[in-house]
Amino acid sequence: MKEIRIGMLGCGTVGTGAARILINGAELIQSRVGAKLTLKRVADIDTETDRGIRFEPGVFINDAWRVVDDPEIDIVLEMIGGKTLAKDLMMRAIENGKHVVTANKALLASHGNEILGAATGKGVEVAYEASVGGCMPIIKTIRESLVGNRISAMTGILNGTCNYILSRITDEGVEFETALAQAQAEGFAEADPSLDVDGFDAAHKLAILNALAYGMEINLDDITIEGISSITPMDIAFARRFGYKIKLLAISKHRGDSVEARVHPTMIPFSNPLSNVGANLNAVTVTGDAVDDIMLYGYGAGMLPTASAVVGDVADIARNLLSGAAGRIPLFSYQPDRIQKIPVMPMDEIAMTYYFRFAALDRPGVLSKIAGILGDHGISIKSVQQKGRQSEAAVPIVMMTHEAREADVKAALSRISSLDIVADRPVLIRIEDENGDEEM
Ligand code: HSE
Fold this sequence. Notes:
The protein has helices at residues 13-24, 26-33, 64-68, 85-95, 105-122, 138-145, 160-172, 176-185, 194-197, 200-214, 233-241, 303-322, 366-376, 406-417, and strands spanning 3-9, 36-43, 60-61, 75-78, 99-102, 126-127, 151-157, 224-225, 244-254, 259-269, 281-288, 292-299, 351-361, 381-386, 394-401, 404-405, 422-431. By secondary structure, the chain is α/β, with parallel strands linked by helices. The structure holds L-homoserine.
C-alpha cells in the first residue's frame, strides 16, 4: 500500500488534535483513503509538554525548517498560526513542491493572492477547510457542492468567541466585560481577545469566503468591521421586544459589479435560524440561484472539531495524489485566470434598516427635534419607544427605521449627537430582516 508522509509545523491545540486523529484513527483513515498516512515529523519549540500522544522516536523535533526541507515529506500541515514564520515556512514548503494544509485564516486573508500564485506555479495544493468555521465544511461546500450555483449572498456567525459572549449577555443580562471574563475563564476567549471581539477574525474568514463564492481576489482591507464591545444588555432587551436577537454577523452580497462585505453586530428576527445558534457555535447560510438557502452549523473552534477539518483536507490531498489528480480543484474555486478584482461596495452606499437608541432628556419637543433631523436626511421612522419617565436624567428613546442609506444615517446621527438635549453617543445597530421594511 502506498505511503504518504506528513510533516506538521506546530503542535498546539489544533496540531495536537490533528496528530491524535491521524494516529488514533490511522486504520479507519487508511481504509477510506487507500493509503497509509504517516506522521513523519512534528516540529514545535515546546518539546516538553505532554500532548497525550505516543510519537515514534525521532518524530518530534524542534526545527520546523527540517520539516519543510525534508524531501520525503509529501504534505505539510501548517499549524503555527500568525503571518510571519508561518508564511515563510509555508512558502518554502510550496517552493519545495509540498502540498500544504493550514487553518490560518489571518495568513490567507492577508496573503492569499500571493500564496495562490506560488501554489499554482508549483502545481501543489493548499487546503484550508479549517480556516473558516472549524469543522463546518463550508470551503468544500462552496468549491465543490455549489459549483453550479451563482452565489448571491452569505451570512455567517463565524466567530465562536463573540457568539459565546453575546449569548451570555442575552441569556444572563450581564455586561460585555463580565461576559468576556466568563468566556476567558471557560477557555472560549484569548487573554488578548481583540482579534475576536473587534471582528477581525470574522472578517478574515469573510474575505476567504468572498473569494471562493464570487471569484474575486482576496480583499480584506475594504471589509467594514465593527466588533461587539459596545453591545449592552439594554440594547439586547430592546431587540427582544421588537422580535430580534443581536449576533455578530459576517455578511456579503453580490451586487453585480461590486460586493457588499461587512462584519458588525446585527439584529436578526427570531424566525432566522441563525438567531438560534447559541454558545460558541458557528453557522453560515449561503444563498445560491439553484439551491436557494443552505445552512451549515457546528463548532468553529476547538481541538478536535478543527482537527477534523484538517484531516479531511489531508485525505483529499492524499486521494488526489493516489489518482494523479493533484490540483483537481482550484485553490480559490475559480480557475486562477478567471479571478477578478471585484470592488467592495463602500459602506456609505449600502441601504438597510436600522435600530437607534438615543439617551435624551424627557422634555416636550425632544422627539420632534430628533425626528426632524432624521427627516432632513431622508430617514423614515418605522416605530419609536421611550422607556421610563425622568424629569432631569436622560431616558432611552429607541427607533427602528425604514430602509435608509448608511451615509445619511451617519450624517443624521452626527447632528443628533451634538444636540444639548442628547447625552452620550447615539447607538446604531444594523438590521438584517427580509421583511424588515414591512409594517410591524
Ligand atoms: N477564535 C476563533 C473563534 C476560532 O472564536 O471563533 C478560530 O477561528
